Amino acid sequence: MIYLDAAATTPVRREVLEAMWPHLTGDFGNPSSHHGVGESAARALAAARAGVAGVLGCRPAEVVFTSGGTEADNLAVKGIALAAVSGRAVAGAGAVAGARAPDAVSGGRPPRDRHVVISAVEHPAVVESAEYLQRVHGFEVTTVPVDSDGLVVPAEFAAALRPTTALAAVMYANNEVGTVQPIAELAALAREQGVPFHTDAVQAAGWLDLRLDALGVDSLGLSGHKLGAPKGVGALAVRQRVRVEPLVHGGGQERGRRSGTENVAFAVGLAAALTLAEAERAEAAARTTALRDRFIEAVLARVPDARLTGHPTSRLPSVASFTFGATSGEAVLLQLEERGVIVSSGSACAAGDDDPSPVLLAMGVDPVEAQTAVRFTLASSTTAADLDTAADALVASVSALRALR
Ligand code: PLP
């Protein structure tokens, strides 16, 4: 099997499993317990938090472990926006909650308006969180369009912001077409207006620089299972100055931002995976970019009507995504699987959904063509031989399907 669906998920790395193992067995304590077993778990959790913070260039207290990327995005979008409009929430690194606390980002301002800004290509975790704010809390949601490469145009983003906007969210890299947004530039525009800025870095992790300061973002979301950690763990890094209304209430873990007994082993796994990915990142990104470009060239040359989706250069090293004229993406996927090549038609999150991808529609792709989308996503272990086989299988699959017409 040639697995080219790394953007959907990855297997757990051996080193990650080995790091986790002691915390699933002998060192099983509850980090809140006041005895040696608990204290040992608390130390492991603190080390994991420091490991994640090290890669993100933030303080350990700014890291909130979550159940994954979806929860990280929910906590950022709902938690930061709700805190900004109420002025009553837990400050990022444990400051005391108080009624009408000063504004989080720009200091001393009154609570913000019920207005959020998101891009037109966000993951459903962000889109539906914004829709929830609209439906239940009366927010206005401004969706900033993208160009035909899937890029947010900074001037259009700036025009959507108001000095009273509660939150803006633009993903770092898109999961369907791989387009990488100019996050530092967009975050600077938000900062000029004093608007908290969140970025979903789930797909960027392992490929791009995740340091919060370099990006200038207020919060950043991650998911473990895209990186060789298990499914069901992630993190939200949120700057100390930014207030967050918790979504899960209870024992006050994660400095009140996310209650519930901490998943120590999975936090350890996330930290191990992220640290390894960061150490390997420069080399993996350069090698994978070269393989990706060679594959894209082969597909465009050999498959009639193939069209690359997403930005030609500002894209993740790992993503080669296409449309195929009038040949159903779902049918191509099945044909490829028969030939031992595993890919995805669009994003795994919309699996089973026959509607054309909202991301492609936002990029102006015709709805019929959008249903021909196929995404190949590489891992750092993908080889040139894997991609040669995949290109051959794709040529054979598309011509078999076209012969049926
Ligand atoms: N954000 C993006 C860009 C993603 O690609 C995904 C997963 O596919 C998520 C968020 C959700 O992450 P998780 O599967 O950990 O909930």
Automatic annotation (TrEMBL):
Transmembrane region(s): none
Cross-referenced InterPro entries: Aminotrans_V_dom, Cysteine_dSase, PyrdxlP-dep_Trfase, PyrdxlP-dep_Trfase_major, PyrdxlP-dep_Trfase_small
Cofactors: pyridoxal 5'-phosphate
PANTHER family: CYSTEINE DESULFURASE, CYSTEINE DESULFURYLASE FAMILY MEMBER
Domain Aminotransferase class V: 2-83, 111-388
Coiled-coil region: none
Recorded family membership: Belongs to the class-V pyridoxal-phosphate-dependent aminotransferase family. NifS/IscS subfamily.
UniProt catalytic activity: (sulfur carrier)-H + L-cysteine = (sulfur carrier)-SH + L-alanine
Protein name stated in the entry: Cysteine desulfurase family protein
Keywords of the record: Iron, Iron-sulfur, Metal-binding, Pyridoxal phosphate, Transferase
